[in-house]
Design a protein that fits this description.
- The complex is a heterodimer of chains A (about 110) and B (about 110).
- Helices cover about 0% and strands about 55% of the residues of chain A.
- With about 110 residues, chain A is mainly β.
- In chain A, a hairpin with a 6-residue loop joins strand 9 (about 85-95) and strand 10.
- Chain B has about 110 residues and is mainly beta.
- In chain B, strands 2, 5, 6, 10, 11 and 12 form a six-stranded mixed beta sheet that branches.
- The termini of chain B are far apart.
- Classes of the chains: A mainly beta (about 110), B mainly beta (about 110).
- The interface between A and B is medium-sized, with 23 and 22 residues.
């Protein structure tokens, strides 16, 4: 079974802090994605990566950056957390055109 | 621009009722379409997918969806729902690399 793991299930940070969210997949997938999930808004793509050291902006990249130094790991960075970044963050991975495999999510609260 | 619309935001059904959740998409190229489900407290998981061929696709747990190209639709159906189908359902379309998700439909099945 494909496994996508995320470093934390719940995280509480203060405004202005730098936040790192880690995602690891164990199936040698080329593509990895970061989304945020908010009630009534569905999933919105923040960034994605289709290869090591490659990254592409999604629909809402402002305030975020990413890093992919190894194929299995894709990190989301909030440079200076703000309260409007309180959300559920989902990581996903896949290969080619198949559906995505999702991690359990990290619920981030910024106070 | 690519987009996905799910018009039903909340649906409440009694057990054994039939289900149809609407999904309309806007995309100019060859479409790959997906339905995902998120049970309470669980990961998003793939229900079914359409790439080409038979427009009626069958997925897990008795779900099916029909691709109607002329209507740009990919509606999800189940003949008889169960209490365990209570979940949030997301329709998605795949672009070149990235996936566009609808805003989701929350289904509640009353026992």
């Amino acid at each position: 079974d494909v496994k996508v793991t995320q470093s934390s299930r719940y995280l509480v940070k203060r405004t202005g802090e730098k936040v790192f969210l880690e995602c690891v997949q164990d199936m040698d997938h080329e593509n990895m994605f970061w989304y945020r999930q908010d009630p009534g808004l569905g999933l919105r793509l923040i960034y994605f990566s289709y290869d090591v050291k490659m990254k592409e902006k999604g629909d809402i990249p402002e305030g975020y950056s990413v890093s992919r130094e190894k194929k299995e790991r894709f990190s989301l960075i909030l440079e200076s957390a703000s309260t409007n970044q309180t959300s559920m963050y989902l990581c996903a991975s896949n290969r080619d055109r198949v559906g995505q495999y999702f991690g359990p999510g990290t619920r981030l609260t910024v106070t | 621009a690519q987009s996905v619309s799910q018009h039903n935001h909340h649906v409440i059904l009694s057990e054994a009722a039939s289900l149809e959740l609407g999904c309309n998409y806007s995309y100019g190229g060859t479409v790959n379409l997906f339905w995902y489900v998120q049970y309470p407290g669980q990961h998003l998981q793939l229900l079914l997918k359409y790439f080409s061929g038979d427009p009626l696709v069958k997925g897990i747990k008795g779900f099916e969806a029909e691709f109607i190209k002329s209507k740009f639709s990919f509606n999800l159906r189940k003949p008889s729902v169960q209490w365990s189908d209570t979940a949030e359902y997301f329709c998605a379309v795949r672009g070149t690399y990235k996936y566009i998700f609808g805003t989701g439909t929350r289904l509640k099945v009353l026992a």
